[in-house]
Amino acid sequence: MAERLYLFDTTLRDGAQTPGVDFSVEDKILITQLVEKLGIDYVEGGWPGANPVDSEFFAKKRTKTSRFTAFGMTRRPGRSVSNDPGLAAVLDAAVDAVCLVAKSWDFHVKVALGTTLEENLTGIRDSVEAVVACGREAMIDCEHFFDGYKANREHALDCARTAYEAGARWVVLCDTNGGTLPHEISEIVSDVTNVVPGDHLGIHAHDDTCHAVANSLAAVEAGVRQIQGTLNGLGERCGNANLVTLVATLKLKPWYAERFEIGVSDAQLKQLTAISHHFDEILNRAPNRQAPYVGQSAFATKAGLHASAIVKDPTTYEHVDPELVGNRRRVLVSDQAGRSNLLAELERLGIGVQKDDPRLPRLLDEVKRREAEGYAYEAADASFELLARRLLGHVPAFFHVDSFRVMVERRHNAMGDLVTVSEAVVKVTVDGERLMSVGEGNGPVNALDMALRKDLGRFQAHIEDLELVDYKVRILNGGTSATTRVLIESRDGEGNRWSTVGVSPNIVDASFQALVDSITFKLLCSGVAASPEDRPRKLASV
Amino acid sequence: MAERLYLFDTTLRDGAQTPGVDFSVEDKILITQLVEKLGIDYVEGGWPGANPVDSEFFAKKRTKTSRFTAFGMTRRPGRSVSNDPGLAAVLDAAVDAVCLVAKSWDFHVKVALGTTLEENLTGIRDSVEAVVACGREAMIDCEHFFDGYKANREHALDCARTAYEAGARWVVLCDTNGGTLPHEISEIVSDVTNVVPGDHLGIHAHDDTCHAVANSLAAVEAGVRQIQGTLNGLGERCGNANLVTLVATLKLKPWYAERFEIGVSDAQLKQLTAISHHFDEILNRAPNRQAPYVGQSAFATKAGLHASAIVKDPTTYEHVDPELVGNRRRVLVSDQAGRSNLLAELERLGIGVQKDDPRLPRLLDEVKRREAEGYAYEAADASFELLARRLLGHVPAFFHVDSFRVMVERRHNAMGDLVTVSEAVVKVTVDGERLMSVGEGNGPVNALDMALRKDLGRFQAHIEDLELVDYKVRILNGGTSATTRVLIESRDGEGNRWSTVGVSPNIVDASFQALVDSITFKLLCSGVAASPEDRPRKLASV
């Protein structure tokens, strides 16, 4: 009988601590959707009251299936729960669960909190009881637990037991400094199960010695039933436990799969690679090509040597089947896998095509060619759909951009102030008529966008409510003379959202491609279906 | 009594399998020196006879202290040792040790080698005896050992025992597919110690489930006494076991340090960070900022909250002292920075200032203000230093940019082709003289960079070797009218690297700021100290 193992995502809280990472409310909403899509049980959205973004994010419940969780601290020493505004803000949040961090290392209790061990325990108990009283699921993160246990075993265990006895659903043992080793985790967790049953214990590991995943699994083997981690191991210093790696191992390695059930279905597992990459896009950072399971190189074998053996029996060279995690074997043997993925994608978009349609290999080649150049279609649905529709059917030529010119100038104005101005001129042809528009903006791309959407003749009404909500730039291959990829997310008045991509060594050019795709896609979806075998398609709402 | 644990570097052989990596003979010589400098016991230089570079590399012994090792394969089935030219080339090399890979998975023996299990064992024995006869230390890499053991335990153990009994100094158990888990490693290795003593066993792990380091250490705990790995975990798919991480853990974690002695001295350990970064330079790839122990972020803490506690006792927040591995604590100059953090950072930069200097609060406010606007000083050391020097002392005004104009135009050229051209004009004043330059580029920023660095009068010689090696763009707050942050990493001819930042709604403007800071910083470091109380400062080499 398999036991239930719970996964807890702290990308938006602990992961957000990473230097250089700044999640907006929009980012948090998107990431929450990604985490839910994967089948993770808990999403820790942040710390309501700690900063404006988190407070706004917690104004409403953001999950449908995962348990929406708020982070906070146990009540401040010397105050009552009702007299702690920080804690009150957390308890007020529209959540299913509340996870409070508590000191469990005597040194921290005395020096950082400046209080007694007894008061620390009282604080834990009062805080848990307050959470339970609010009807939320209560969790305690025992900070620095393993170092605390080594320094003062009794107090560490007291903290865990106090939380449990006060009604905490979960007592999470945190290796906050990240320096604990797997065999130590095993020993210590085993001891803890004497005061808190394993099915109420969780583990929160860090990667400072490259043991975050190993420590998480060692803890599970010793009895814990909740693992905390982040997407792609995002986190400060050396990162947090990588939930992506853990999900794949828990689902695909028999020792775990036979003993434990997690909330991720086989179908959700197939989304793993896409979800991991999409998260990197949101972070605007290059995916780790060598990431276990989902990295582009994870199943890349030097073809010659192994190709024939792989065709016969891939298990001789692969530890798991890459397709189970939505990745693919990269061996130049056949493109059978590529073709079936493509068909599935086209089906999903409502583009009807027979599986032996001779245009499919051409589309596949075109996609591969462009992706080698830098296009990222997994994050740009609309651009992919336009590419497919153009190759398989037709997309009306709504307008044609004859030329554009963008200028950025930094100079002194008439008052002698140094200013930077950006201006763009765009010349388009609509229904045979030449239209010219000029626009200004905060920067070259903004100016171009303004000019491009200023006057598109009879199509203007259809794009009045078009809004750019996100704009991401990534430089591929480094340096200022490298390739630039631009991803644009657009929205219309009905709440439809779509993403488009542009690639060029020139950032303005790349932005231009993505902008034109965005407008074209909007016009395509507003009008009639492009060809008989295509179902008229409504844009998927967010 | 501590037991001797041997470290074996296969950067130049297994690490070299990584797609995109091509070591020249020069690279191999340099890397060998690095590995020796660290105190690694064996350097596996490649496969003599397999390719011209390796053959040339093995023409002479390349190590002074480490055991120079050649890789190869056991004799081909059906041939004798003397009739196997491949093996002959390996035996001819000027080395201390020879490491031959052998099949140990029955499936591979039958399908890949097309021979019998018995013949496989004979091949192993003959090959080991041939190595010993040449006066070399013999090692056998048992390929796919753990999968082979699971498929046919008897044959896997036979392979190991045969190698040992034939005189191999080391029998290395390889997790070639990388899918074995730590508890399996423990069980299997324990079993193997019944046929080969632990002090003749080695482990060679891969990171396909993020367990390469954990598996290596689990194997040691089960009895092996040689660990194979690569610098920075270089290797195909998800990489090899990271020797850098392993060295630090073996030296600094008491459980290992008390039981085992490795060839790395404390002084050599202090070189760890520099060696790791130097290796990345040779590879020409950006160092992993989050690498355990040696990454730039490995000991980076968000200030404010912890700063005072850290000053009192760093062990409360750090799992090891960063200085032991040649790294340093990075209390981030962020908007939570306190005065003591700032002082520590200024001290490190060689900027002398009293702790009650009235300009410090102004500098702190300036940093906070700019960070709220989007500047990220934790990733832009040079921009921070310029900011500090300007506020606390002075930075010579090497040149002044009076104006610039950048233009991007997409139009048809004389041949009717649609092209995008980018051109920039920059007007600067140097020593009272007006200089104007025009530049072209792949995009607006590239064009601006070209124009800006084209003619800076008497400073031109100092910036000739300045090179932009990385360029990152991040849009803060979404949309095309948001704030853009640009981070530029620059390098000069001596291998110095520095980072600068620029922030503006206008991407060209932001890039311009970062470019000017980069040039100014280079000029500052090339010249005299800015004010009496500042120590003349050399740029820190990587």
From TrEMBL, chains A, B:
<keyword id="KW-0100">Branched-chain amino acid biosynthesis</keyword>
<protein>
    <recommendedName>
        <fullName>Citramalate synthase</fullName>
        <ecNumber>2.3.3.21</ecNumber>
    </recommendedName>
</protein>
<keyword id="KW-0028">Amino-acid biosynthesis</keyword>
<dbReference type="InterPro" id="IPR005675">
    <property type="entry name" value="Citramal_synthase"/>
</dbReference>
<feature type="domain" description="Pyruvate carboxyltransferase">
    <location>
        <begin position="5"/>
        <end position="270"/>
    </location>
</feature>
<dbReference type="InterPro" id="IPR013709">
    <property type="entry name" value="2-isopropylmalate_synth_dimer"/>
</dbReference>
<comment type="pathway">
    <text>Amino-acid biosynthesis; L-isoleucine biosynthesis; 2-oxobutanoate from pyruvate: step 1/3.</text>
</comment>
<dbReference type="InterPro" id="IPR000891">
    <property type="entry name" value="PYR_CT"/>
</dbReference>
<keyword id="KW-0808">Transferase</keyword>
<dbReference type="Pfam" id="PF00682">
    <property type="entry name" value="HMGL-like"/>
</dbReference>
<dbReference type="Pfam" id="PF08502">
    <property type="entry name" value="LeuA_dimer"/>
</dbReference>
<keyword id="KW-0412">Isoleucine biosynthesis</keyword>
<dbReference type="InterPro" id="IPR002034">
    <property type="entry name" value="AIPM/Hcit_synth_CS"/>
</dbReference>
<dbReference type="GO" id="GO:0009098">
    <property type="term" value="P:L-leucine biosynthetic process"/>
</dbReference>
<dbReference type="InterPro" id="IPR054691">
    <property type="entry name" value="LeuA/HCS_post-cat"/>
</dbReference>
<dbReference type="InterPro" id="IPR013785">
    <property type="entry name" value="Aldolase_TIM"/>
</dbReference>
<dbReference type="GO" id="GO:0003852">
    <property type="term" value="F:2-isopropylmalate synthase activity"/>
</dbReference>
<dbReference type="GO" id="GO:0043714">
    <property type="term" value="F:(R)-citramalate synthase activity"/>
</dbReference>
<dbReference type="Pfam" id="PF22617">
    <property type="entry name" value="HCS_D2"/>
</dbReference>
<keyword id="KW-0012">Acyltransferase</keyword>
<dbReference type="GO" id="GO:0009097">
    <property type="term" value="P:isoleucine biosynthetic process"/>
</dbReference>
<comment type="similarity">
    <text>Belongs to the alpha-IPM synthase/homocitrate synthase family.</text>
</comment>
<dbReference type="InterPro" id="IPR036230">
    <property type="entry name" value="LeuA_allosteric_dom_sf"/>
</dbReference>
